[in-house]
């Protein structure tokens, strides 16, 4: 990414210029802490309970780790800016935050797609599930996602950005599309790269999820008993809820940025995408999943017993 050398700071106007939202710093801090605690509990529960050392929970623990990282890349800076009444972020800090947001947003996309494929194999090919979704395959899928991510980041180095005097970003974090809008150079190549990256980030993973669930629905409808159909659909409920929340809030940000001229509404929508989605994922998986509830109960009971021994 190239730019004028005299660019030292950007200004994040998404939330810090709204006095009403500044009063809600405690709310955002609470949501961030809940996100950290909830996702950390998921990771610990999966790690400590050998009964759920399966591909689905392996990907779930990676999803929780991604949620923690994505929230940490954006929310602490937002809280500091609101508290200090300071809207600035350094040029290097903005580029770093932008890269981290892209990294973890892509990983979340990919993990949701892989989890849909896992459900497809479990329901449509149950006898071959342990063969197809073996530990080597799961590890290769994660490595493949990192390889694709590296290719995407390398493609973005082709962006040539020359910034004008207006360095105000109407979001609470540095988003690639918003940063590109600040340039005063020719944006045809930049726009082409953004469309390419957006297609790979959004369309390809979502197409994979839709294909997997199309096959799942087709397979479930052929099952003879209503009990078998209900059991099959119940294993997908948590994942479908997380997918709906993630893509629903994502499309909400996109639509609000197109249909409304209000940068404040777009910023609030982006908060829903970055903050609420990551906070709700642990609740969705723990409340709708019997195995996860059992693992969390064992973790909490084990921790309580250990603390009693120390007293």
Automatic annotation (TrEMBL):
Record keyword Transmembrane present: yes
Residues covered by the G-protein coupled receptors family 1 profile domain: 38-285
Localization terms from the record: Cell membrane; Membrane
CDD domains per the UniProt record, alphabetical: 7tmA_OR7-like
Described purpose of this protein according to its UniProt entry: Putative odorant or sperm cell receptor.
Family membership noted in the UniProt record: Belongs to the G-protein coupled receptor 1 family.
One cellular component (GO) term of this entry: plasma membrane
Keywords: Cell membrane, G-protein coupled receptor, Membrane, Olfaction, Receptor, Sensory transduction, Transducer, Transmembrane, Transmembrane helix
Transmembrane segments: 23-44, 56-75, 95-117, 138-159, 192-211, 232-255, 267-287
Phylogenetic placement of the source organism: Eukaryota, Metazoa, Chordata, Craniata, Vertebrata
Top-rank taxon: Eukaryota
Any one Gene Ontology molecular-function term assigned to this protein's record: G protein-coupled receptor activity
Pfam family, one: 7tm_4
InterPro entries in UniProt: GPCR_Rhodpsn, GPCR_Rhodpsn_7TM, Olfact_rcpt
Protein name: Olfactory receptor
Topology in membrane: Multi-pass membrane protein
PROSITE patterns: G_PROTEIN_RECEP_F1_1 (PS00237), G_PROTEIN_RECEP_F1_2 (PS50262)
